[in-house]
UniProtKB/TrEMBL annotation, chains A, B:
Binding partners and assembly: Homodimer.
Segments forming domain Aminotransferase class I/classII large: 67-391
GO biological process assignments: alpha-amino acid metabolic process
One Pfam family recorded for the sequence: Aminotran_1_2
Entry's family note: Belongs to the class-I pyridoxal-phosphate-dependent aminotransferase family.
Name of the protein in question: PLP-dependent aminotransferase family protein
UniProt KW keywords: Aminotransferase, Pyridoxal phosphate, Transferase
Cofactor or coenzyme needed: pyridoxal 5'-phosphate
An example Gene Ontology molecular-function term: pyridoxal phosphate binding
Amino acid sequence: MSEFSKRVSVMANEVKNLKVLTESLVSPDIISFAGGAPAKEAYPFEIIGDIAKEVFKPDARGFGSVVYGTTMGVVALREAVRDILLKPRGLDVDIDNIMITAGGIQPINMLCQLFINPGDTILVETPTFVHTSMIYKMFQANLVPCEMDDDGLVIADVEAKIKKYHPKMIYTVPTFQNPTGVTLAQDRRKQLAELGSRYDIIILEDDPYREIRYSGEELIPIKAFDQTGNTIFAGSFSKIFSPGSRLGFMVASDEFMDKLCNIKLGTDTCTNTMTQTIAGEFFKQGHYPQHLESLKNLYRSRRDAMVKALDAYFPEGTKHTYPDGGYYVWVELPKELDTGKLAPEVAEKLNVCYGDGSIFFSEGNPEGAGSNCMRMNFSGQPEEVITENLKKLGNFFKEKLEQGGTSC
Amino acid sequence: MSEFSKRVSVMANEVKNLKVLTESLVSPDIISFAGGAPAKEAYPFEIIGDIAKEVFKPDARGFGSVVYGTTMGVVALREAVRDILLKPRGLDVDIDNIMITAGGIQPINMLCQLFINPGDTILVETPTFVHTSMIYKMFQANLVPCEMDDDGLVIADVEAKIKKYHPKMIYTVPTFQNPTGVTLAQDRRKQLAELGSRYDIIILEDDPYREIRYSGEELIPIKAFDQTGNTIFAGSFSKIFSPGSRLGFMVASDEFMDKLCNIKLGTDTCTNTMTQTIAGEFFKQGHYPQHLESLKNLYRSRRDAMVKALDAYFPEGTKHTYPDGGYYVWVELPKELDTGKLAPEVAEKLNVCYGDGSIFFSEGNPEGAGSNCMRMNFSGQPEEVITENLKKLGNFFKEKLEQGGTSC
């Protein structure tokens, strides 16, 4: 049978890791803390239905919603990004520098198309998002992990690794990071933008969780400190509107945007105009502030329930992050517990699943890194389900520890 | 500034060619025969609006329409592809071999991701679709043009070029080809599938126009003759539902589909579920047969008007195809006329544009090939507009000929 391209063969391990998460999303019978989808209560169904009925008519707006769109995307939605999602957050850009994409993953893929040759190096966080690692391997990049602490990427380590590995790109999820929930401190954001400029490296600021903050003060994007165009900002409507609409966006300099338009044409021509038009109207009609407020209230309670249950029920020696927003808490169990090895037993006995910690450690980490860790999603389950199941899970881990840890 | 990847630099010429077409789509003031979008009258607005209002509710179907979808796509839409678009046309496949994609261009990109390494050869038709040529160059493939006659690709030439160039893939638009409107004869379809199997080459059967046939007998897809899985079929909803929905599909063997799922995950996670759900309902509720019939009646009259006007008003020595379906007539003017060079004058004096013939001739063709040709889209303009403007255009070309042809 016809031979596959090189890019297909090098991504096998990352694909396996990603499937640990994606397969949990489509098992309706298991209580999943593994995936990362909005809560069922979080969708503005009635508003979407009303807007759709209003929009799909044989008038100018209706035609605009069913025909091919421009490569850059529907103007009304790019204006909403500029005026509602970016300017109030400290990033003031022109709509000519905003492209609407098919969800928040497409910008990652397109930026690899623009910059990455086989063998190029990308610096990533430790731990890092498994889905993007898979894309980087698809482009035959080498991944080099950088240190993180409670304030995100450690800048001194990033600079040391720039000097050692001469990377093409640095990938960061600066706000409520996936998988840890940690946020990059304000001063480090400025320093990272400056490193990008000084060493002429692309900083890919992947910021899909920024809007859903439950506590703490809002921080200015890395891109706002970028003087040279080296930082590219990627955002998403998946967390604040609907992942099924497949809408995201990226902000880049004129020079990059011109090339990104060509890449977009060669990838899928343009982003779907039907959902762009619906989302554009959603913002234009002013539904967003109230919707966002209700999202935050919903998820804040769930985060609190999860943190409380971890503190109450998990074994002594367990550490966890306290995220100010986003979807995830990162949990570090005592060293004797291997979350990946225990996952099948947890699924069978407790009917529960989580994100095995080790899958978030890219190549370049020591063997077994993160094996006692887990990514726990709190957005997808009601408080009582979180409390009840984390109690069971905590007791399960305690029992395992009494038996001497993970059996091999 | 950061260096672009190699793939970006090699596609410049094809990008320039493609922009000749795409830019005509967004100029509202010019009468365009250049692009290829459905007629404004061809969209089922009211039905789409009603379905949307019905679907976006907090019930099982509503949730399915706003969340992340499976990588393969919404089951109801894959069933519609199987039962309505493929089985009655002679291709009987399982839904596990049908993936829904973001429009009809994404399958081309994804198959390049799956098979094409830099330097691989792809055999293409002469002339061929400029948008796909751009994608092939993005993947750093070499293009080798094959001969066509009134029955499509000349099989003996394809086989000779297989032996000479050892291609990885053969790209064909077998039904109402873009740009010529020519259809590959039934016996050649079988022969092409057999060549793919015998030489272990991928046959990419790109068939977005198949449904809109105005005359002649329906032909069985190449994929129906494929015994080895070497043929991959790509289809689109852009011509029969809405390009703004960004929906297409591809049909591939199990072995390929598994890898294509990984590629889809790394490209845009999944296709938008909102428009998949609306389109799925459109088929399920039985709207398609009547909609298709009205599309065919609309476009048949426009084709007839264009062919009649070409015969009546164009200079002696003009040749053109007579397409049994699709969007385009291919016109060959007397050698003295250069359509690319005349295009600015035509736009300025007549307020009309067309697809310059030369942009559809890939690398490997002699310099200046197709310069006396043009691709004329008939689907986008009402009959009276076609008649009136082709009269003007024909007279313009006659005058030019009297003056000795294109001035240099």
